[in-house]
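Blackboard transcription, Thursday session:
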Amino acid sequence: MLGIETSCDETAAACVRGGTQVMSSVVSSQVDLHARYGGVVPEIASRAHSELIIPVTARALLEAGIDGADVDAVAATTGPGLIGALLVGVSAAKALALAWDVPFVSVNHLEAHLYAGFLEEPELRFPLVVLLVSGGHTMLVLVEGHGRYRLLGQTLVDAAGEAFDKVARFLGLGYPGGPAIDAAAMVGDPEAIRFPRSMLDDGLDFSFSGLKTSVVNHVRSHPQVSTEDVAASFQQAVVDVLVAKARRAAREVGAVALALGGGVAANSLLREQFLGACAEDGLHAFLPSRQMCTDNAAMIAAAGWYRLEREGPTPLDCGADPNQRLSIVP
Amino acid sequence: MLILGIETATMQVGCAIGGHEGVLASVHSAKGKRHAEQLVPSIQFACEQARVELSEIGLVAVDVGPGLFTGLRVGVATAKALAFSLRLPMIGVPSLDLLAFPVRFSNRLIVTAVDARRGELYYACYRQVPGGVQRVTDHQVGSPDDLASELLASGEEVLLVGDGAQRYQEAFEGMAKVELVDTGNSHPSAAALVELAHARALREDFERPDAIEPLYLRRPDAEINWSTRDGR
Ligand SMILES: [Zn+2]
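(Written on the board underneath:)
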């Protein structure tokens, strides 16, 4: 399965055998192109995808040591994401499927993140709760089996990744915010400031906007405060909420395993505390490597492989949907 | 050599197949700006109509704009992916050339204009030459009034073509020497794309697929705002 991902600011292609064996995974990040704007600029992203899509795809085939004739199916992200960016990957993927006369499979980007955990550890365990945290999403999803998802909780206002970006910008730590906060927090004191744990005891939904406001207020009223301490204390507050809710979700639904996915899952503190929580609660932990947490095409190929098995090929008149939702079982 | 032509610079999705025997099939649809949805099925349909297998294609030609950015990227990504997977050479042709070519049998100045959104047009001027047309100006971006005053200043008899000219026709109304060509020719022609690419293919005037990108003519807004802010 050749997977193609262009939903945001990474142009990615990967070859995956049998839904689990990663033969190649090429990710070309546009972070440098967007850094000075402090966020992803859709038109700049779309132009870069257009330039990169074929070289990145060619590289993925080369690194996998295969030829176009060896590809059995092509999967691409059709949403959610930036429409202009998505369309580049979808168009290229459909053309490749047409030329090689193999099935095309539409993949939901969020569903693909759920599959990232299986790439490096193919022994699947259900029911599984996935904590999916990225720039655009913070959600807890129950995976009952392949293609059977239930949404347990989600962000009401800001996603966790967005909070990282905004706080990093406010603290002058630069873009992207996740790695910047992670690095600053390494040398800060996570207990220096007691930021609120938003909605900690309230159901399984998330909200980080109050936390963001507290950070801003605290820094304004304490201009001498150490940036590293603020970063570390902020990060600790986010991670506490994420981990506590994931544990509670797993307990409530009787899950046997907990998985982490999405760009924020590359955060060091979150990874550490996630593993600790799973060990304490006797849950099997699926913790993808950092490369598989952030956007990549191997997860697209994996999700595509299972989807093709379940639902067959996607018709070639398919487009992209910027607001595509994870299909939830009723 | 059989050529597959792909055209998605305006609201239209166009696709044609042809070669030295002329154009064997051409498919155009212009409803609802659904480039990504319609393009691959159009290619399949054109192949069926022409009774050609994709594997028989020897060259991929694509309209590189100027035009709608999203449409162009769908066309260019599709064309490049086909050329890559079928290991074919490519030729890119500007949208404005594709509007001028079908109306080449005129001694007048041919002016083609594509809708550039935001109240502007992409346009260029052409003259008839043996076997085709020759562009005599750069590709330009400007308001319909900019174009109207240029045409007035030239004092020439003008044939004006394109969806941009149609959309802003009131800007050219009452200009005695300007004739607006009717809607039948207002989108770039995929058949013209195949014909023009064929002429270039005979001269082996191919392009490296990685050199083919949409002709944007405008920088992204964010980039423009950034430079203005820095006073650059
Ligand atoms: Zn993602």
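Lecturer's comment: The longest helix of chain B spans residues 69-86.
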